[in-house]
Amino acid sequence: MAVKSRIVKGFISLPYNWSMGPTTTRFYEEFKNKRIMGTRCEKCNRVLIPARSFCSGCFVETTNWVQVSDEGTIRTWVLINFSYEGQPMAPPYITGIIDLDGADVGLPHFVGGVELDDLETVAKKVRIGGRVKAVWKENREGHILDIDYFKPIN
Amino acid sequence: MTQRVAIVDFVQTKHGEALEENVRELTFGVVRKLLDRVDMDRSEIGTMISSSADYWQGTSCSNSYYYDAAGGNLKSGSKVTEDSVFALIYGMMRILSGHHRTALVVGVTKCSECPSENTLTNLAADPFFHRPVGLNTVVAEALQARMYLDQYGPSEEQIARVVVKNMSNAERNPYSHRGGKFSIGEILSSSMMAAPLRCMDVPSTSDGACALLLADEHTARQLTDKPVFIHGIGWSVDHTYIGDRDLLNGALPKAAEMAYSRAGVKNPSKEIDVVELSDVTSFHEIMWMEQLGLCDAGNGFRLVEQGVTALDGRLPVNPSGGLFGANPFVARGLIRVGEACLQLRGEAGDHQVPRVNKALAHSVHGLGGQSHSVVILGN
After folding, report:
1. CB contact under 8 A, A82 and B138
2. Which of B92, B253, B266, B339 could make an S-S bridge to B320, C-beta 3.0–4.6 Å?
3. Which chain B residue's Cα is nearest to A96?
4. pLDDT in tens, A81-111
5. pTM exceeds 0.90 for this model
């Protein structure tokens, strides 16, 4: 007997409890005061953000905390116009990598505060090398999304 | 390498969308066919290594569901998740250990059964920094594509030619999921998904499985007249945090250098006859070609435009159609190796490239190419 394969639907939703570790916890505590902190590697002298407890290149611990600016330049960006389950917000929105002043590595985050109707208009405001500044949320809970987005300046 | 490891044979499914067979049946199907082709009994398999991913199967131990279906019943078996080429490398090492004469390597993914690549690869991002801002493979790939565009300035038409080529090649491949003749205009009229990437710049996912038999040289020559030898392997992994990486020059040049050095390849663009690489987007076929050292940085799209990478070009890239032809997420890397093998054996049929003595297969895994593996194969 020829039969068509039956589809069984399933849904998996499971709780986890991830420890951030003390360094990431402090990094986000500083967010409440609108401060972006990095750690400096004594060996390569780079300031690493988010602050971390070791430099994986030099493979040494990093304990020297330094504040970096909440302004920086756009290294690259993408205008998101597709949907998926678990997405941080409804499209369209812009995701970018921001090289903050005083840091030697980039931070992936949103670029916002611009009209998103049309790619050409967006590309006039948002460009590689363009300057941006963090727009902080009013209520900050110690989370990456305490920064609402980075807004183009100048 | 003192002892040589050979690929005895390779089998793949007709890849597709929502294949009716379950994962066990797909796996059994490719392994049974492989054993029949080499006239080998299951009892003669030395060891079995599979590659699949738990999140992509909805089973917290994806391998426990199909081990026996892959020929591993009461044998030594194990799984490598992430990249199926890692399973090939592992299988090769088991033979080089001297403990096994043959190793069966199997890859399987049914993307039609699981959440989308976008959702699952967002879960591949770390939960404190990357996941909440929505990073996943397509977002990371679009961030790289934007940098490439800004640095080298290819036109949209030049990039779209990759899709036109691969879909046309895929049409000639009887195992591909999709394929066809598309005009550049059709590619460019597909909607912007993650600008600069359009929907048609990104291959959608597939269902599929494959099996490949490895053996030491002596055993391989007993099992086949056409052994394909692994001349060199290389792999490399990049930093977890995407902001720490050089997104246009990461792990791939390291992986390639390792593979070339082991294979004694000095001038890859002259010595390699055919390339099967993981074209996760149209831009990435070009970027990976450049980072494999097959052409200068910023020159890849010109090669595509000149037809150099076409089926009848000087250096055909993805004659099978690549991931545009079929993209069963975990199995896709091993399929690249298998397709390179078919080319070397002269068994690729309508997508056969003439005069193949040395082939390169490439696989990638992780956001924005966090890890790459490169395999150099020859007769």
Report:
1. yes
2. B339
3. B143
4. 999 999 999 999 999 999 999 999 999 999 9
5. yes
